[in-house]
Amino acid sequence: MSDTKKRDLIGAIKEKGKTLEAEMSFFDHIDVLRKHLLRALAVVLVFTAGAFYFTDFIFNTIIMGPKNPSFWTYRMMCKLYERFPSIGEEFCIKTIDAKIINTEMSGQFTLQLNSCVMAGIILGIPYLLFELWLFIKPALHENERKSASGFVAFASILFFTGILFGYYIICPLSVNFLVNFTVSPEIQNTFTIDSYLSSIMTLTLGSGIIFQLPVIIYILSKLGIMTPAFMRSSRRYSAVIILIVAAVVTPTADPFTMLIVALPLFLLYEGSIYISANIERKRKKELYGVTKVN
Q1: Helices (DSSP H) in the chain: which residue ranges?
Q2: In 10 A of CB 77, how many CB atoms?
Q3: Is the pLDDT of residue 24 over 50?
Q4: Whose CA is closest to 152, among 218, 215, 224?
Q5: CA 277, 280, 284, 287: dihedral to nearest 10 degrees?
Q6: What is the pTM assigned to this prediction?
Q7: Which CA distances in Å does 252 have to 87, 142, 169?
């Protein structure tokens, strides 16, 4: 065998070895991620099992709450109307004529199961974020670890703030609007329990996810994908989208009600711009320092 062929063979073996090493490293990371996710799943299952003990409270008080005229949000809206009558009598919601039925033989058992699972997921989110942080942490530099040390607490606070906002603001306003909305007076609104539960969970969890916007912007800005300049230039389009969302979920055409829903979303967007700008400022400072030393 010639020297050229020997060198080619040795080079091919080395390249193959590097490929195998990279593949093993990839699967090692997948295995580590799997262990983190399994631990998070175990915690969610524990919370789910605990939720079965409080089934009556979870279903009758929490899930069915937005359907009850004595719900906290409706009472506060009536108090606002009493204090400021100019906002209109329709702002005070005193009755919600919604008939909810079950059309499946196993519907109520499935309802109980789904309710407890969703409660377990919501309560287990902080621990899931903690496990994701443990997985990502080894790949970060020391300064990156310090800057992101409060990730779990910050993301959890935002998530539960979004959950509360969705449950106490968006859910009751949406339920009232959808219950009373009719195309024709001859069509009676009767809802299945699956449809009701799905709407409550979607609006509540959706709000929790939307409130993660600053965290998402932080990650995208760290990766250099998102910039404050782009977010500022897109502010007018974002404002239109936020107002449309607020208009859809509010029960009246009153601008005061719409602003109650829209204001937190505006604050989230502006806060995300500040976060992105702060990251860009730090990046430029580091680059300037390196350039100055060189």
Answers
A1: 3-53, 55-56, 72-83, 107-136, 142-147, 151-165, 171-180, 193-210, 213-222, 228-233, 235-249, 255-293
A2: 22
A3: no
A4: 215
A5: 160
A6: 0.79
A7: 10, 52, 14
